[in-house]
Amino acid sequence: DKGTAAFHDFDEYERLVAATSSVDATAHLIVLLGGEAGLRCGEMIALEWRDVDLGKRQICVQRSDWNGQVTTPKGGRLRYVPLTIRLAAAFRDHRHLRSPNVLCQDDGQPLTRQMVQYRVLRASRRAKLSQDGVHILRHTFCSHLAMRGAPARAIQEVAGHQDLSTTQRYMHLSPAAVEGAIRLL
Q1: DSSP string for 140-182
Q2: pLDDT per residue as tens digits for the range 97-108
Q3: Helix (H) or strand (E) run with residue 74 in it
Q4: What does pTM read for this prediction?
């Protein structure tokens, strides 16, 4: 079903972010990358420090890791995503020289999908959330933007949706869109 997608409401998301403090700094960064930048799991794993521009407060999403194979992101093209203040701070706190990859193990090896998923699962359990997994964070990102009145085209751009119909799955959440339509009358 490509109808609606499950997501965390604002309070649940904040509980999840808070719960990452009892997991580790990497879990905190993972949750913010998904919930405040909309990255897919493979995009998180393939993100390199050279893609992070803290001066401009943006990241360039230009590669994705699928089972160890690094390719272009799912939409087939790179995209730039502005950083929230909280995500920029998390990047500063997480800075390391172990690897060119942002997310890596202590020995510099990249994290696997299972390692990323495990951290999110642990944080979800500690936040007492039933919805777990990494991809719900991406849905949360898109849903929160729609609920705050972001235009569909802007959401499409930062999420890297190839087709606007994918973005439209979130637009029913936007009360501003309905009110704006009525004001046209």
Answers
A1: HHHHHHHHTT--HHHHHHHHT-SSHHHHHHHHTT-HHHHHHHH
A2: 999 999 999 999
A3: none
A4: 0.89
